[in-house]
Amino acid sequence: MTLLKTSWHHMRRSPYQAFAAVLIMMLTFFVISVFTFVILGSARVISYFESKPQVTAFFKDEAKKENIEALKEQVVATGKVSETRFVSKEEALKIYQEQNKDDPLLLELVTADILPASLEISTYKIEDLAGISEMFKNSTLVQEVIFQKDVVATLTSWTSAIRRIGIGLISAFALVSTFIMITIIGIRISQKKDEIEIMRLLGATKWYIRWPFIFEGILYGVTGAFFGWLVSIILLLYASPFLSTFLKGIPLFPVPVLVMGEILGAELLIAIFLGMFSSWLAVLRYLK
Amino acid sequence: MIKLDKVSKTFATGSIAISDVTLDVNKGEFVFLIGPTGSGKTTLFRLLTREFLPSKGSIIVADFDVVKLPSHKIPNLRKKVGVVFQDLKLLLDRTIFENIVLPLEVVGVSSKDAIKRVEEVMEDVEIAEHRDKFPIQLSGGELQRVAIARSLVLSPDILLADEPTGNLDPATSKDIVKLLQAINKKGTTIIMATHNADIVNYYPTRVVTMLKGKVARDQKKGKYDAS
Questions:
Q1: Domain boundaries, position A69
Q2: Which CATH number goes with the domain that contains B93?
Q3: Domain residues for B211?
Q4: Is residue A60 included in any domain, yes or no?
Q5: Is B93 an 8 Å CB contact of chain A?
Q6: φ/ψ (deg, to 5) at B207
Q7: CA distances from B108 to A204, B102, B112 (A)
Q8: Do A201 and B150 touch (CB under 8 A)?
Q9: What is the pLDDT of residues A143-181, one digit of tens each?
């Protein structure tokens, strides 16, 4: 209680320094939160696509139904296929109309003739997609083949790039925060030089004098982490309607409260460590 | 209670603060330490509280071998030795109560016990009515009493008072010395450094005179003679 009181007293005496310390911590944890959401979200998107191993073959207009059926039988005979679905030109048009029901111009331009019939093939294992895709590509009936492996590969490379940028940014912010915290706690110690000297003369141990400064660093870290997290959550909630439309079909939203809580918990732990570490460095540097 | 044996202190600049000082102070004694400015009185006090180490000699204070005392045990020594500093060293942004309670907080006394003890000491030194005032609101004599109260709050065995009557009028100075004598009567060993000839001559007790860093005289019932 005395520790909290002393640290609070320090903060109240120089509110601008306290505000600067909280602000830099808040920025750091805002960046951490945003990248955590992006990385967790993209991992979820990838696993969604990975859980749906699928090849879609689009047929030429001249391909006849019985030939398509024969090709399908041939593919199913490999034993790697878990599910097949034929989408005729008419069904493709229905899907198109459903997807673009709010845009009459797009609806007018398209008829069933220009949409290709397609066959969607799901496999038990994602690694079997390449073989199935190859079978389709070798067929004269097929105009184009797309399979999720491409999507997953693209997403994975994007995610790893985002992760690298995130780690770089977070490291830079953490480093800047640490230096700013060392400076602020250092200024505090200099301001309290006389008081520290008096306490020493009155019999205070080194740790009795050091703890309030270290605790102050922890308070800055924890406060900054909470507000950084809060701002990122508000932004996420604000962007949720747009994102859920954009990522239609992928079960990403709403983000579970438990996940938000877990992120906050982890960030608070990091904040305690970061606040403690930087103020400990300041104490070692300025309180010999 | 206090034993200095051939103690010398030379600072890094080469100036000799005290030289070859040998002094014994028994438990319960009241000693005036006199001498002109720069004679080594304050240095002697700072050596007794291990603010720094002597260049030579040995110092025993309240069973602590001050020279050999490891750094982490210095707080234990300082809890046994109360000091009224020449410049008082009160925290100006804290109330009188908060200043006096500080040594108790430092040793971890519970809030309830600390409040009780501070109130007792404030009654003893007659500053109870100033409990929630700040140092800037008090007179010189009252501030001295606050400094004395803070030095007493841990019930130290030894009290070192460095010029506690400096800048005070004669009547207030006498009050402060009376207060210190009353504390001494309760068993606390007191060394009071002073320039105040009237005070020293008014209260016949042991007088140690320091000149140019050496003990020039040590009289059982002395008079002020700093020449």
A1: 54-124
A2: 3.40.50.300
A3: 2-218
A4: yes
A5: yes
A6: -125, 120
A7: 10, 10, 11
A8: no
A9: 888 876 666 677 778 878 888 888 898 899 889 889 988
